[in-house]
């Protein structure tokens, strides 16, 4: 493992630079990139020397860390990976790495029963399984839902540190509805994962409207450590999702009671895995179907959940949602009718 956190930050920064095929990197460029990264992540503003980066490159090339990075110099001044597919993040863990991770997992396991760590249980289980399978060279026995082809995951770490360090970010972003990308300053407050997709909550520029942006729609990102940061006074992350299915809540949205009938065949699935934590059984019917009620904000994600059960769910109230579901289901049915 790297000698310290600062060295790891430099190695990852150099790796990110050399993986970028659209730019040519001199030693001075790598020094600047590493200095910027250390300032962004650790607040270190004294910069680093060429000698340090040269030693880092030698270390990455060597077997000492297990990287054996194929870093080459071309035209006497530019650095690149000889293998364009290479990355230090793909290097297999060595025995010392596995031992260190095992010790860390053992520490985390001690906290699994505490309420503060309930949301970390699946992460700890995943780490345990990954370390065990790597050490014993066996196949994993736990498989978590994932989408490895999802775009935008490279921005997670950068946005996380921007939030922690209270730094604005400059984004080039294109929503699904936009014809072209827009560039703007964004003040990030919270990262949220929903169904294997990541979102960041915050506000734009001098705006006062809370937004969530999908990371897979970000085209470029730059941290602005010197810019003034507008602190979060717009929402409480601890309670914001209490009345929400998914990630979308418009300004002024309020939770509504939603009643729906679930067919007998679907009832066991929805009862054992509630659509929302507010879900309650209103009535059990003789045919095995049930009437359930939740109290949430009506949004696109909730609609998609109901549509996912098709004829297995009938929304009973409120009237606005009943009519909305009816229109969309009718339109969907017409597509199959007209295709005959």
UniProtKB/TrEMBL annotation:
Domain WYL as annotated: residue spans: 155-223
Q: Which Pfam families match?
A: WCX (PF25583), WYL (PF13280)
Ranges for domain WCX: 260-333
Q: What's the superkingdom here?
A: Bacteria
InterPro entries linked to this entry? CBASS_pafABC_assoc_protein, WCX_dom, WYL_dom
Output this protein's name: WYL domain-containing protein
